[in-house]
Design a protein that fits this description.
Radius of gyration: 25 Å
Mean pLDDT: 96
Number of helices: 10
Helix content: 10-25%
Number of strands: 40
Strand order of the largest sheet: 33-34-36-35-37-38-39-40
Shape: globular
Largest sheet: 8 strands, mixed
Number of domains: 2
Strand content: 25-35%
């Protein structure tokens, strides 16, 4: 019979006089050997599935402490009401076209999930195709991936439950609105119709049972083909990396659906390899079979393949490759590397639409197929664009624009004329012009010049007292660019400042910026973030007491690493769904894929670097850490919640100061994708309330 072990509590008094009864998590005698170095892991038992009685007891006990604390903060209800009021406006996603039909996602304001619509013209009456809000009572079933047949008559769509990466695929008749067959399961991320819509390709992983589905390492990926109307057990494997079960494969199709692009990622390599499969013969050509560079297909014309790459061009270029002569030896430059970072390239209407970043802000240039610069897309301001999808024959494409003061606006773009027209523009219940964004540059520990955006209300006084959030990510070649947030405006109306540090490890300045902070050089990302905090304090935006740091996933790791290294520098830390045990990250779900950035604990030099910053392993008893609210979710199968569980348990054990250490564990929610608006706003309310309260500030009665 199971006897609950999480029953004893350690009672402490927080800095604001609140009694905290932390559950005492038991410790186990587990020691691992990494390259001859012995490392203890006393909270290993928290890696068990959350359904395990002992783990569940601990989770329930921690949540009780957390919400008892949060419930005592005055003004939480009014804060949630204001967050709901601000986000209650119509929002549109970038449309997709297929044979004259326009498909788009829309939210009327407070719907938990966006609704998929179809229309035959921008001015025509739209029709609901899928309303995910009707698929579950609590809004935790989300739309996760779509593909439209070339004639616009069929929709392939995926659904995910509780924020999981696992996807179930369905086919719908667009004309009748009816699903036509059973579900295809045990897939992740990707599915695509074949050319004649007789079936579809999808990325599959081996079936896992029970709670192991949320923790087991994802290995042996296969690309499978499902014939519509057949049983899934009859699905054929069309591609598998049989000799490399730990490699990752990401399939995509060219616009004719006769060619399958296979992006291959060995976990320890940066960049990717590119294989090309003929869908009629099944023949696979290893077009680029070496790593170290990013290579993304744009189009195939006969035996020529146009790709976007940073091979011998750290800021990116467009080259033409030859299927008859695989390798970089056949490469012919079409669009040369410039002074700005090339981010994406689309082939639409016989033109190459190239999106660049200039100091983390978007610009779009139009080239001919021979690489001649034809024009630039005129954008509304210094912000971020996304979209420009379409076919080589399309006359029109769509894109979105946003910045720190502008909610996402949708534009149509006439490729031949080079003109943009406003398609959808949201109407807000408040005036965003009362906020201002500035971009500053500061120097990191090694002298590197790093950009940072700072957003606040106009008329801000630089007296060192402003409640300030410093946000960062810095990984996987992902750039952080300006985006609009209604919750951020609420923070600013409470006197707050919000900052985005574009630290190394991200993609803001291309390959060199990314690779400057990977593997044994990972510490540079943390040095950049620490230097950002020091800049804000030195320039009197805030003080250490009024500075909170925040980030999610890899950004959660960032927060965990710097708060452990410089605990005195920050008043509050809020790491969300973070990777906290850096010696075991590659043991769960897709974690092994992150070795390209983090390195491998099984390699001595990389292990040494990882161990120096791993948040879980660098907590020391008797240290005064900042007030910390760790957030995670019970069904996160991207960064498993055990990372946050172990970190929180160890941090509560080590905390010597009066600042509270809490963990907020959401139920029926994953890594963030597909999270219902209700859960998102409740979490934001609690984060803002926790930050302000531990800065000695109050939530205003009125906004």
């Amino acid at each position: 019979m199971f006897t609950p072990l999480v029953i004893a509590c350690a009672t402490v008094m927080s800095q604001d006089g609140v009694k905290l009864d932390y559950p005492i998590a038991r410790k186990v005698d587990v020691v691992d050997d990494y390259n001859g170095v012995k490392v203890s892991d006393p909270y290993r038992w928290l890696e068990q599935p959350i359904s395990t009685p002992e783990v569940k007891d601990w989770v329930d006990a921690e949540n009780k402490v957390t919400f008892n604390y949060l419930d005592k903060i005055p003004g939480r209800d009014s804060l949630l009401a204001e967050l709901e009021r601000r986000i209650n406006f119509e929002r549109y996603q970038v449309p997709v076209q297929a044979a004259g039909r326009i498909f788009y996602e829309h939210n009327d304001g407070l719907q938990n999930q966006d609704v998929l619509f179809v229309t035959i013209a921008p001015s025509s009456q739209p029709r609901v195709l899928i309303d995910p809000n009707k698929l579950s009572a609590d809004g935790t079933v989300a739309l996760n991936g779509t593909d439209f047949s070339d004639d616009g008559r069929w929709l392939l769509y995926g659904t995910s439950k509780s924020g999981s990466d696992w996807v179930e695929w369905h086919v719908k008749n667009v004309d009748t609105g009816q699903d036509i067959y059973e579900t295809v399961k045990w897939s992740k991320f990707i599915a695509m119709f074949d050319r004649k819509v007789r079936g579809f390709y999808y990325l599959a992983y081996p079936k896992s049972e029970g709670g192991q589905a949320f923790t087991n390492a994802n290995a042996n990926p296969t690309v499978r083909y499902h014939k519509i109307g057949s049983d899934q057990s009859a699905d054929n494997v069309v591609y598998a990396l049989k000799s490399h079960p730990d490699w990752y494969v990401w399939p995509a199709l060219d616009e004719k659906r006769t060619t399958m692009w296979l992006s291959i990622n060995p976990p320890s390599e940066t960049g990717n390899r590119l294989y090309v499969r003929d869908n009629q013969t099944g023949k696979v050509i290893k077009l680029i079979d070496s790593g170290g560079s990013d290579v993304s297909p744009i189009a195939r014309v006969g035996d020529k393949v146009l790709v976007f790459t940073n091979y011998k061009a750290p800021l990116g270029r467009v080259v033409q490759l030859d299927l008859k002569r695989p390798g970089w030896g056949s490469a012919k430059t079409i669009v040369s590397e410039g002074k700005d970072t090339l981010q994406a390239v689309n082939w639409v209407g016989g033109r190459l639409l190239a999106t660049y970043m200039e100091d983390a802000r978007s610009s779009v240039r139009v080239f001919s197929m021979t690489g001649k610069l034809l024009s630039r897309v005129k954008l509304p301001g210094l912000g971020t664009v996304a979209g420009f999808a379409g076919k080589s024959t399309d006359r029109t494409t769509y894109y979105s624009y946003t910045d720190f003061g502008t909610p996402p606006e949708i534009f149509s773009y006439d490729v031949a004329k080079g003109t943009s027209h406003l398609y959808r523009s949201p109407k807000l219940s408040f005036d965003p012009s009362r906020y201002v964004a500035e971009q500053v540059f500061y120097h990191s520990k090694d002298g590197t010049r790093v950009p940072m955006f700072i957003v606040h209300k106009k008329g801000l006084r630089l007296d060192g007292s402003n409640p300030t959030i410093l946000y960062g990510y810095g990984g996987f070649n992902i750039p952080e660019q300006p985006w609009f947030s209604t919750s951020r405006t609420v923070w600013m109306d409470m006197g707050g400042v919000w900052c985005l540090a574009n630290i190394r490890g991200g993609g803001e300045y291309g390959k060199a910026w990314h690779e400057a902070a990977i593997k044994t050089h990972r510490q540079k990302a943390y040095d950049d973030f620490i230097a950002a905090a020091e800049f804000l304090i030195a320039n009197k935006y805030c003080s250490s007491q009024t500075l909170a740091i925040n980030g999610g996933s890899n950004g959660g790791l960032l927060v965990g690493a710097v708060m452990v290294q410089r605990p005195e520098l920050f008043g509050v830390a809020v790491p969300e769904v973070g990777v906290m045990d850096m010696l075991r990250f590659n043991q769960f779900t897709v974690g092994k894929a992150w070795e390209s950035d983090f390195g491998s604990p099984q390699i001595p030099a990389e292990f040494a670097a990882i161990r120096r910053y791993s948040p879980y392993h660098n907590l020391h008893p008797g240290t005064r850490y900042p007030a910390t609210l760790v957030t995670t979710a019970d069904t996160d199968d991207r960064v498993v919640p055990a990372h946050s569980f172990k970190f929180a348990a160890r941090l509560q054990e080590c905390q010597a100061g009066p600042a509270p250490v809490l963990i907020r564990i959401e139920s029926a929610a994953g890594h963030g994708g597909g999270k219902p608006i209700t859960k998102t706003l409740e979490e934001l309310r609690d984060e803002f309330a926790f930050m302000l309260h531990n800065m000695g500030r109050s939530i205003p009665e009125k906004f």
